[in-house]
Amino acid sequence: MIFRPYYYDDLGCAAYLFGCGSLGRCAVVDARADGVDDYAAFAAGKGMQITHVIDTHVHADHRSGGRDLARLTGATYCLHESADVSFPFTAMRDGEDIELGNTRVTVLHTPGHTHESVCLLVTDLKRGPEPWFVATGDTLFVGAVGRPDLPGRARENAEALHRSLHQRLLTLPDDVEIYPGHFSGSLCGAGLSGKPTSTIAFEKRWNPMLSMPFDAFVDALANVPAKPAEMEAILSFNRGTSEYASP
Q1: What pLDDT does 243 receive?
Q2: For residues 196 and 180, what is the distance between their CA atoms, to the nearest angstrom?
Q3: CB atoms < 10 A from the CB of 126, how many?
Q4: Domain segments of the chain: what residues?
Q5: 3-class SS at 217?
Q6: Structure pTM?
Q7: What is the DSSP letter of 210?
Q8: Cβ density class 34-69: b for 16+ within 10 Å, e for less
Q9: Residues 80, 116: Cα–Cα separation, whole Å
Q10: Counting beta carbons within 10 angstroms of the beta carbon of residue 161, is it exposed (0 to 12), middle (13 to 18) or buried (19 or more)?
């Protein structure tokens, strides 16, 4: 497997490119608007075709480069089927498998941060049949979890997030690596580590949010950072309802 993370310190963002080097097929996850040319150039340099561009959710803190990257490369642009946007996209469904040659991606619907949030469980068949890592978007971070208040109905979303974490992610094998959508510096959660990767086992042991009883977890998520600057304008751009020019 070819695997390339991209880290952006300004907003504590992460994007990922991964896929099958043998058959030359790859996906980009959570592309930023200012990284589109970099993703395309890296894939071309490895002799790979970007066939899927996936946003784990509609982002509120930065402009997505997903649609632009898909247009540039001829890739399929994917969101969960419940995404509330004004443009056409390829709908992903819970349990769906995406084939990238010897790399396989299973879609896990994990509502909570937003209703359409997904995590992507990735297996490299050349390595073995067991999953290798999960791209957790804004559902699970290193040392923290996603904030539930951005779409509104914070308490309801916090309850959904608890279920997504405990019923979907924490049931994965302990040695599965996690690659979140953010690290320290992001406003999409509180208490994020500066370390951008972890494992399911490590988070079970050390992430304070994951050991909380249900009611305490929901109450704790009421204490969140200030909402991202220009959130409404960024959401409007990412939903396709307006143009947005960054300062």
Answers
A1: 58
A2: 7
A3: 12
A4: 2-239
A5: helix
A6: 0.93
A7: G
A8: ebbebbbebbeeeebebbbbbbbbbbbbbbbbbbbb
A9: 5
A10: buried
Contacts of 240 (CB under 8 A, 6+ apart): 67, 85, 86, 87
CA–CA gap between residue 187 and residue 228 (Å, rounded): 6
Other beta carbons less than 10 A from residue 18's beta carbon: 25
Spatial CA neighbour of 42 closest among 15, 64, 79 = 15
CA–CA distance, 5 with 132 (Å, rounded to integer):
15
Q: Can you tell me the distance from the alpha carbon of 165 to that of 171, in angstroms, rounded to the nearest whole number? A: 9
Helices (H), 30-93: 36-45, 66-73
What is the residue type of 106?
A: T
Instruction: State the helix-helix crossing angle for 66-73 and 36-45, rounded to 10 degrees.
Output: 40
d(CA 161, CA 217): 10
Q: Has residue 185 got a pLDDT over 80?
A: no
Q: What digits encode the pLDDT tens for the residues 96-113?
A: 999 999 999 999 999 999
Tokens of 54: 């996936």
How many CB atoms lie under 10 A from the CB of residue 214? 12
CATH architecture of 2-239: 4-Layer Sandwich (3.60)
Answer for the pair 29, 39: CB distance below 8 angstroms, yes or no.
no
31 and 64 Cβ atoms separated by less than 8 Å: yes
Which residues lie closer than 8 Å to 232 by C-beta, 6 or more apart? none
Give the Cα separation of 158 and 152 in Å (integer).
Answer: 11
Please give the structure tokens belonging to residue 193: 């580590």
How far is Cα 159 from Cα 218, in angstroms, rounded to an integer?
6
- CB count in 10 Å sphere of residue 228: 18
